[in-house]
Amino acid sequence: MLLKTTAAGAGAITAIDTHAHVFSQDLPLAQRRRYAPAYDAPLPLYLAQLDKHGISHGVLVQPSFLGSDNRCLMQAIAEAPHRLRGIAVIDPAAVAAEPNQLDALARGGIVGIRVNLFGLPDPDFASDAWRAMLPKIAALSWQIEVHCEAERLPSVVGSLLARTEDSIDIVVDHFGRPRPALGVDDPGFRYLLALGETRRVWIKVSATYRNADPLRPGSGEQTALAAMPLLEEAFGLDRLVWGSDWPHTQHEGAERYDSVCSMASKLLPTQRELQAVLVDTPARLFRFV
């Protein structure tokens, strides 16, 4: 077991991986996509990684290349419903046409939606479709997970904070995706730090390699290590969660589950930090308790 936390009793939470994807390459792909995998990432292989590393629970996130077709995600959760939760991708216009679909997703273990904006414009949260859907998300006590460049956080997260009810949690992916050349000095990352006082925003301390400059080996790790004390001070450990980002799409050649677990140990060097970020905080946020 690489990630050591405190747990007691059968079925106890030892750790929660809050960010992973499962898919197969023969699934129908979204028309607008930046990437398509040439391999399968099946649920049994993911669960085997959790077992190998002593991680009891996981959160599956709908990959962007599958768009809003959440069938693979739902099937995976159904195979291990006590162990898994899910974050879906939703088309607000489709919800307007079929409003009961969110309730069906909730019954199947979905606890939020993801807004992945890489390669896409900012959503119009003032549109009729979004204004109709946001109260439904609030009623389900779902979160909204945001993945975009740090420089866009003021327009995206700022707009969500202004338009959503206090009951909607907002989760920002992968350290907020600061620009590799700027790291923690990215103005977007500094804006993110200022959101700690709202107590409505959570951060995934995950995928350090996605914030790396390809010309500067180790720069993603350096940024993450510099960001951690700033995030802990601004948000507190009760607003930070960890994820493996398995199977590390577009970084499959360099990353392994072992390596991201080793990185987690560097980011969270104390037992108190591990317990909070791997167990206590994600258990509440993703509704395992």
UniProtKB/TrEMBL annotation:
A Pfam family matched in the record: Amidohydro_2
Domain Amidohydrolase-related: 16-288
Any one Gene Ontology molecular-function term assigned to this protein's record: hydrolase activity
Cross-referenced InterPro entries: Amidohydro-rel, Aro_Compnd_Degr_Hydrolases, Metal_Hydrolase
Superkingdom of the source species: Bacteria
PANTHER family: BARREL METAL-DEPENDENT HYDROLASE, PUTATIVE (AFU_ORTHOLOGUE AFUA_1G16240)-RELATED
Name listed for the protein in its UniProt record: Amidohydrolase-related domain-containing protein
Species of origin: Trinickia dinghuensis
